[in-house]
Specification:
Layout lengths: L1 H21 L1
Length: 23
């Protein structure tokens, strides 16, 4: 499950980075 959590966090961080990048 650790891999799944890391993948989820990576997706979340990438989404946030993309969101703040548009601002």
């Amino acid at each position: 499950n650790e891999l799944a959590i890391l993948e989820f966090i990576h997706l979340l961080v990438e989404t946030m980075d993309r969101h703040f990048g548009n601002v």
